[in-house]
Every structure is written in structure tokens, then in C-alpha cells.
Amino acid sequence: MNKLNGMLDADLKGKVCLIRFDHNVVKKGSIKDTMRIDATIPTLLHIYKKGGLPVMMTHVGRPYDKKTGEITISEGDSVLAIVRYLENKLQLKGLVPDCHAEGKSGITDLSPLEPAIKELKQGRVDFVYLPNTRWFKGEEARDDSAIDLAKKLASFADVYVNDAFGSWQAHASTYGIVDFLPAYAGLLMQKEVDNLGSIFSPRRPLVAVVAGAKFDTKIGPLSSLIKIADHLVLGGVIYNAYLCHKYGLQIEGVASEDIEQAARFIADSGVDASKIVELPYIVENHGIEDRKEWKIHSVKDLKPGTKLGYVLDVAAQNFGEAALQKLFWEAGTIFVNAVMGYTALFPEGTQAMYGLIDKCSAATKLFGGGDTIQDFKEYLPGIFAKAMNDKTYYFFTGGGAILDAIQQGSAFGMKPVSALIKK
Ligand code: 3PG
Ligand code: MG
After folding, report:
1. Domains 7-191+414-418 and 204-362 are alike in CATH topology
2. 367 CA from centroid of ligand 2 (Å)
3. Which tens digit of pLDDT belongs to each residue from 72-117?
4. Which of 172, 231, 248, 305 has its C-alpha lying 20 to 30 A from 92's C-alpha?
5. Which bound ligand lies closest to the C-alpha atom of 35?
6. What's the whole-number average pLDDT of the chain?
7. CA Rg, the chain, in Å?
């Protein structure tokens, strides 16, 4: 049986522990929500308890342009806000090595790490936090520069700990580095992977809810998810594209490629489309700037060829329908990786759905995705506060991560996770 190489038994005394977190919570220089940092504090405390010396790292934002290969370094994507937060919360002193980049090719000179780690070893600081991993040349590369970076990073440490469940992409700091250091799964990583088991071997029926702004990035995971789930509820552009395909509608903002992807998804011989739960009422709005001339439509009453403005939500009344309520109430497991619409303008669909899910007291309720959880907190603060201490709820710190694991077909399927399996 697969088992992660956990950090609990590792000898960390006096060792420089290079830890990859997913502290990607900084937007324009400020922290939006600390949940993903707080969730990793047990790992950090464990390292201190074992006498290890923590050198932390995370990516922030997407400073690497995949098309041009250029890396844009801006203060808004810096790790400084995270460092200040940890310093305040834990009353520790941190240090960020002063690395500089060459033009747009990212940081290549890692020599400033050496004096920083010396400070750590001599007890003048409590932790080192590396600059944004995506500022380093090679982090996202597919050539030798990725191996170079992994090797260089490894040369400063004694062990590597991956606690970055949400950072599922195989990059130098999440994956490549495993070849060059003894590598362990952090405590959060371990917990998240354990909970993924509830999706792969669920108490049935399993109701899955997925939404997204584009079909192409979701088609692979959706094709896998619909095989595992008993019922699939769609939202966002994904649902709009499905409606366009099935009912011949034209919805503003839904690209023809999205509709083609929806058609391809349904046509896949392995996909049982009868598992898709249709939400009959949708909300059309004029534009996406503010609530304007908005209307609720029943999909069944719209003739093929009907042109709609932006469809920005599913109507709350869907979740008052007896058949839909029954489907949720009977669920053994509910997995949600989605908000229903454009919540900034129309939070009602999401509020109604999460409210209904909360009433499913016997079901295991699994929520994934930073935005999903932030919206939950913002639009249903009372239920969210209660849910945080309710054992039937679990909040994953990653969303894309779960979908990748589902696509790979195993809780251990993500490349950075599979690299941590005990040999
Ligand atoms: C996230 O915030 O979704 C994770 O940190 C992953 O970020 P990425 O999608 O930019 O890789
Ligand atoms: Mg994301």
C-alpha cells in the first residue's frame, strides 16, 4: 500500500529543513486570507520541536509568463507579508535573503542564501524565508535550468519537507528537488492526502459540485470525476457551456471553444451524462460591471437559438426544489470545488447551495479551493464559523490540487505527492 514518507520519525536535530509551503495568499502585497498559512503551523512547530532549522519557501501569484518565459518581479508578489504575519503570530524573527534578478530571466544567483542560513545556524534569526519561488530561474522550466535550480536549492539544506498540497504542479521546488535531498511529507500534506481518500472511496452516494471559468482546464478532471461521483452539479462558465451545447443557447461570454469542449465531454464514451444534475433556473444580467436588468429564466422555456446576456448565477430557487433537496439530503459525501456564479455580484446561488449542504448533517462535506472557501466565509459567515469545528466538514487548502489528483486517479496521483511515497 502507498504511504507517504512522513516527517514524524525524521531526525531533524540541527538540520537545515527546506520546507515548501503553499502560502500563495498574497494579493498586491497584502494577505487576503491566512487560512493556508495557519494550516501549516503544526509542521513548523514540529520542526522547532525536533530542533530543526526552518528555511521556508512558497510561490506567490503567477510572475512567470509561460509564452515568453519572462519572469516579472514585483513587490506585490513578494513573500514579505507572509514573513511579517509569521513573525507577529509566532513571535519569531525571520530573514529573507537579498537575491537579485537579471532582467526578466529571474534570480540565478543564490549566493545570498549562504549568509542568511549562517544567521539561522547561529541563532540570530529564527527562520529564513526564501523569495517567491517563481522569481527563480528554472522553477517552472522544463529544461536543465529546472534541475540546476533544484540542485542549488538542495545544496543549502539537509532535508526537504513538502507541505504544499495546493501547489500541485511539478516544479523545481515541489518536485525536482526530491532527487537531491531526503524528502518528507509535511503534516498538512499528510492530512490532505488522507482526506482525499474520502473522495476516492466515498460513502455513497457521492455528490460532486464543480464550477470554473473555463472548460479546457477542467475537462480532464471532470471526465474522471463523473466516473467516481454518483451525481455531478456544474456551475460557472462550465455549466453555461453545457447549457449552450445541450439546449442550443447563446450566452454572452461563453466562447465557442468552451461549447465544443462541453460537447466533447458529453460525447466521451466513458461519461454517463445522466449523472449531470441540471439546475433549471439561471440568472441573466446585463454586463458584468453591476447588477443591471437581471432576470431569472427557466432553461426549459428557452427556445434553441435564444441569445442571452451574461449568465452570472444559478438562481437560489433551484435549491428549494424538492428533487434537488432530496438528492443532497441522501448524499453520503458531498464534494464542493466551486462557487456557483459570479459571487461578487450574485452570491445568492452559492449561498442557497451552501445553506442546503449545511443541512445535510449526516454527509461528509469536503470543500476545496481557496476561492471556494473564501466565498463560503464571506457569504455565509455564521455557517462557516460553525463548520470549522464540525467533524463532518473538511476544508482542503487546494482546489486545482484535488482536481489533478482526481484526474490522475489516486490520492497519491499528483506528481509532487507521488515523489514522497515511501520506497
Ligand atoms: C492556488 O492558489 O491555486 C495554488 O497556490 C496554486 O497556484 P497556481 O495555480 O498558480 O499554480
Ligand atoms: Mg487556484
Report:
1. yes
2. 14
3. 999 999 999 999 999 999 999 999 999 999 899 999 999 999 999 9
4. 172
5. 1
6. 96
7. 23
As a whole number of angstroms, the distance between CA 300 and CA 306 comes to 12
CA distances (Å), origin 55, targets 83, 114, 169: 12, 12, 21
**Residue 328 CB neighbours (<10 A):** 21
The answer to whether the peptide bond before residue 205 is cis (omega within 30 degrees of 0) is yes
Residues with CB under 6 A from ligand 1: 22, 24, 62, 166-167, 169, 370, 400
Pick from 333, 407, 399: which is nearest to 368 by CA?
399
Atom 1, ligand 1: which residue's CA is nearest? 166
Domain residue spans of the chain: 7-191+414-418, 204-362
Supply the pTM of this predicted model.
0.94
Residue matched to cell numbers 518528507: 184
Q: Which CATH number fits domain 204-362: 3.40.630.30, 1.10.10.10, 3.40.50.1260, 3.40.50.720?
A: 3.40.50.1260
* Whether the predicted pLDDT of 141 surpasses 90: yes
Fold classified for 7-191+414-418:
Rossmann fold (3.40.50)
DSSP label at residue 4: B
Which ligand is the nearest neighbour of the Cα of 62?
Answer: 1
CA–centroid distance, residue 369 to ligand 2 (Å)? 7
Beta-sheet pairing, 310-314 with 281-285:
antiparallel
3-state secondary structure 249-282: CEECCCCHHHHHHHHHHHHCCCCCHHHEECCCEE
Closest ligand by atom to 174 CA: 1
- Alpha-carbon torsion 44, 46, 49, 50, what sign? negative
Q: Which atom of ligand 1 is least distant from the CA of 169?
A: 11
Does residue 348 contact residue 315 with C-beta atoms inside 8 Å? yes
Look up residue 381 and give its three cell numbers. Answer: 459567515
